[in-house]
Amino acid sequence: MFFLILLVFVLFNSHGLVSSLNNEGFALMSFKQSIYQDPEGSLSNWNSSDETPCSWNGVTCKEQKVVSVSIPKKKLYGFLPSSLGSLSNLRHVNLRNNRFFGSLPAELFQAQGLQSLVLYGNALSGTLPNEFGKLKYLQSLDLSQNFFNGSIPTSIVQCKRLRTFDLSQNNFTGSLPDGFGTGLVSLEKLDLSFNKFNGSIPSDIGNLSSLQGTVDLSHNLFTGSIPASLGNLPEKVYIDLTYNNLSGPIPQNGALMNRGPTAFIGNPGLCGPPLKNPCSSSTPSASSPSSIPFLPSNYPPQDLNNNGGKTRKEED
Ligand SMILES: *[C@@H]1O[C@H](CO)[C@@H](O)[C@H](O)[C@H]1NC(C)=O
Ligand SMILES: *[C@@H]1O[C@H](CO)[C@@H](O)[C@H](O)[C@H]1NC(C)=O
Ligand SMILES: *[C@@H]1O[C@H](CO)[C@@H](O)[C@H](O)[C@H]1NC(C)=O
Ligand SMILES: *[C@@H]1O[C@H](CO)[C@@H](O)[C@H](O)[C@H]1NC(C)=O
Ligand SMILES: *[C@@H]1O[C@H](CO)[C@@H](O)[C@H](O)[C@H]1NC(C)=O
Ligand SMILES: *[C@@H]1O[C@H](CO)[C@@H](O)[C@H](O)[C@H]1NC(C)=O
Asked: Which is a Pfam family this sequence falls into (predicted)?
């Protein structure tokens, strides 16, 4: 009798007839099923015979709970399933440079401990849900080089810990939400370039004293004058305002001072130093310095499909 039971046990186990995979493993198996192509076999060890997903490629657990799913640059072709949101301890999602399409599943925002969501260089589309504001721990949001559209949800200003915010090279429209600069107090990196944002540049962006590197608002449809408060940004910050529809004099203070004309070109209505068309002249001439031919002929990059164009990001 005992032998029989043992035999049955051994048979069941060795043939995987008894699946003891935990719930989080099942959630990730459904992620695997939403991937139609995995040409490099990156998910080949995602095996439902395992008890937990913790040994699977790209999966990191802490105390047997999945905290990170990181599978960058693997040519994965598929969509993002709602089941990812059921990973209650999920903190990091990095699926950059794959071929994911479709929209962000609303359920993803149930993973409220999410600290980083890095999805750049895919073919994702649709709008950003207002649920973003629920992600109180979000520090890094990089959705660049996709096909997202619509406007930035107003709730984003509740993401007080957000340090990296990169929406560049998408199809976003609308104006920046009220309180953008007042709310995102931790912001260190801001790149909204190559979209269709319009309206004026909020003056409270000048209060974001942790910003570093380039604050890139270029290649959008921003209108109105440049708020003098932008000059309050740290002196080392480079503010790229090129190719918008800004107008009026360029404030000459702080971080806006001592810039060459290259930070401002492509805005026919801007005047005064460092541009050569004086503000008094209401009709800039055809040879106006606002169209200085400083740029290489392949600039601006037009190909939003991840080839060429802007330097590809390769950091991990
Ligand atoms: C999953 O693991 C079981 C047991 O280790 C093995 O027999 C089976 O071939 C594996 N399945 C896949 C798809 O790799
Ligand atoms: C952006 O939207 C326009 C239509 O509004 C469309 O023609 C274009 O292909 C879209 N571009 C991207 C990169 O999604
Ligand atoms: C976003 O793009 C989709 C598909 O191109 C379109 O149907 C939808 O109206 C767009 N939404 C917004 C807010 O532009
Ligand atoms: C911004 O563009 C949208 C259409 O995408 C338009 O409805 C809205 O009025 C514009 N806002 C401003 C301030 O120009
Ligand atoms: C933003 O900075 C200005 C001065 O630079 C200050 O008057 C204002 O109170 C600040 N706003 C917030 C919300 O901190
Ligand atoms: C640029 O701004 C001016 C007003 O300053 C407006 O009349 C014009 O329509 C805008 N152009 C675009 C392409 O938004």
From this structure: LRR_1
Q: Among 1-15, 147-161, 165-179, where is mean pLDDT lowest? A: 1-15
Domain 127-309 has CATH 3.20.170.40: no
Residue 78: which pLDDT band, with cuts at 50, 70 and 90?
very high
- Mean pLDDT along residues 89-110: 96
Q: Measured from the CB, is residue 98 less than 6 Å from ligand 5?
A: no
Residue having the nearest C-alpha atom to atom 2 of ligand 5: 207
* Atom of ligand 4 at shortest range from CA of 223: 14
Ligand 4 within 6 A of CB of 125? no
**CA gap 273, 252 in Å, rounded:** 8
* pTM for this predicted structure: 0.85
- C-alpha of residue 13 to centroid of ligand 1, in Å: 11
Please indicate whether residue 306 or residue 235 has the higher confidence score (pLDDT): 235
Mean pLDDT of the chain: 86
Residue spans per domain, the chain: 127-309
